[in-house]
Amino acid sequence: MTKIHLIKTVIFSTTILFAASCTALNNRAAKKPNIIFILTDDQGWTHTSHRADPNIPESKSDYFETPNMDKLAESGVLFINGYAPNPICAPSRNSLMFGQNAARHIYNKDSDWYKKTADWLTIPRAIKKADSNYKTAHFGKWHIAMHPKDAGFDYDDGMTSNSGGEIFGDGFLNIKEYTKATDEYMKENHIGNPSKSKSGGKPSGHWDDKNAKDIFGITSRAKDFMKKSIAEGKPFYVQLSHYAAHLSLVSRKETYEYFKNKKQGERHTNPEFAAMLKDLDTGVGMIMDFVKDQGIENDTYIFLMGDNGGRLSLNQIAVIDENKKLVEAYYSTQHNRNIPLRDGKHSFYEGGLRVPFMAAGPGIKENRVSRIPVSGLDFLPTFTELAGGKVEMTEVIDGGSMVPLLLDESIEKVERNSEYFIYHQSSHRLPRSAIRKGDFKLIKYWSKETKYKTTPKVELFNIADDLGETTNVIRDNPEIAKELEIELGNFLKDVNAETGIRNIEGPFVRLMDD
Predict the structure, then answer these.
(1) 389: phi > 0 → left, psi -120 to 50 → alpha, else beta; which?
(2) What is the tens place of the pLDDT at every residue in 206-239?
(3) 285 SS3 class
(4) Residue 459 has what DSSP assignment?
């Protein structure tokens, strides 16, 4: 080959390689990402084996083990100030799906709101509006006041609620027989209740199969859906809404026996809960491994969040073997499971609202820790922008897109329709509200509550200085309290929120009755 021919050959080859590289980059840019959203149930902020806040040693469990969640947090961004939309599962899940504060629907004066959602934006509808090529699926606990298919999902498990992960819901044991057997066991073995735990809890051991709490069933169905989408060359959104770690405390036998033999911590002690959480974490790891094995990790985002804060205490514990026989029963003595946060599920203190919250995927730097407050309300606009955007987020969408924050560490806020974080409940629950701006959070009780008989009507806390919300600083900051209470009142009035109590079932139950 002559020198000229050699030069021509090199130039030609370089040109071809450059063109191929450009084509690959263009295809890469045009390819829409896959989105996986894992929603855990009743998992508290401190219920992981990594620190929920790297600066707070007690923000990690001293007993529970979640190695895959730890790995997920390390592979992307861990949000220190990650909040559920509500401290209870049903309003939180509705709010997630609609991107709306629960005051706009579940706790609205219009009790028939759920009959009028035909044109409401939902996560799958918004994603499909951004790009109609997306395949969407929901597996696990639904508990939302519209059918998953009406919400826009292509595949789903139907109108599921808590019963899908309960022993009673599986037909494993009759609740009356269980209660009778437990009462007899307690009496015969002279087991006291020194800390006044609730009796009539739910069984813990469930060893009739390897799919306790449907953790691995949910995971398997999600993997099958993703395989099909990949084979079709379609981008996908899949939501895995786990029943774990909600009561019943159900796990695989071998996981339970591991924690039964493990030394208990000082803050976390319950082997039944620890085993269920570990099985849940194993399911998370299976999804992460699947993404890697399929070679789609550079095209796939994984988000994980708890649906509300962890339960403050556990009920009476009963362990049942594979033969449906009661083998042990005792009263839990652990009633402050969310330290350093105050209180837990159902509460408007941090223990009821702050949850595990993390994200990983293309463009998200590893080992990031963000202290920017984010909310489950942000998922609808976030997923929509990842899918292509160009969908109008009307004023009823209370969340904002986290995409700029995820991809750029210099971004210091999420743009929403309000600078305030607002939480509210009423109607078929005792009316309470909370509002946060910056470091300050105000909590308002609209009626007298026996549980909080020593609690003032309005409280103010500086979350930055007092994470445990131990000191009401309203007297020292009257102007801040006034601003927050006025803004809270204006919002609730604008959205037509109920602030009283009425004799009515939740909307999911009413829809099922209809």
Answers:
(1) left
(2) 766 689 899 999 999 999 999 999 999 999 999 9
(3) helix
(4) E
Site of tokens 């969310």: 338
pLDDT at 278: 97
Residue 360, beta-bridge partner list: 302
Tokens of 497: 């929120």
**DSSP string of 376-445, one letter each residue:** GGGHHHHHHHHTT------TT------HHHHH-TT------S-SSEEEEE-BTS--EEEEEETTEEEEEE
Place of tokens 């730890």: 70
**Partner residues linked to 458 by β-bridges:** 444
What is the SS3 assignment for 77?
strand
Query: 77-79 and 368-370 as β-strands: parallel, antiparallel, unpaired?
Result: parallel
CA distance 88 to 82: 15
- CB contact at 8 A, 21 and 222: no
DSSP assignment letter at 471: -
CA count, 13 A, side-chain hemisphere, 350: 27
Around Cβ 267, how many Cβ atoms within 10 Å?
A: 18
Q: What are 451's two structure tokens?
A: 């549980």
- Give me the pLDDT at residue 166, please: 79
- Give the C-alpha separation, 104 to 496, whole Å: 7
Closest to 265 in 3D by CA, of 256, 274, 257:
274
Measured CA to CA in angstroms, residue 94 lies from 147, 165, 216, 238 at distances of 12, 19, 24, 17
| Domains of the chain and any CATH numbers | 32-405 (3.40.720.10), 419-493 (3.30.1120.10)
β-strands 368-370, 357-360 pairing = unpaired
The tokens describing 43, both together, are: 């998992």
Q: Tell me: cis bond preceding 248? Omega within 30 of 0 counts.
A: yes
Q: How far is CA 99 from CA 350, 381, 382, in A?
A: 21, 8, 10
The Cα–Cα gap between 476 and 273 comes to 41
Measure the CA–CA gap between 407 and 402, rounded to whole angstroms. 9
pLDDT score of 13 = 40
The pLDDT value recorded for residue 222 is 98
Please report how many Cα atoms fall inside a 13 Å half-sphere around the Cα of residue 227, on the Cβ side.
9
Supply the pLDDT for residue 299.
97
- Upstream peptide bond of 359 is cis (omega within 30 degrees of 0): no
Q: Which amino acid is at 445?
A: Y
Q: Which residues of the chain register pLDDT less than 50?
A: 1-29
Return d(Cα 268, Cα 43) in angstroms, integer. Answer: 13
Between CA 91 and CA 144 the distance in angstroms is 8
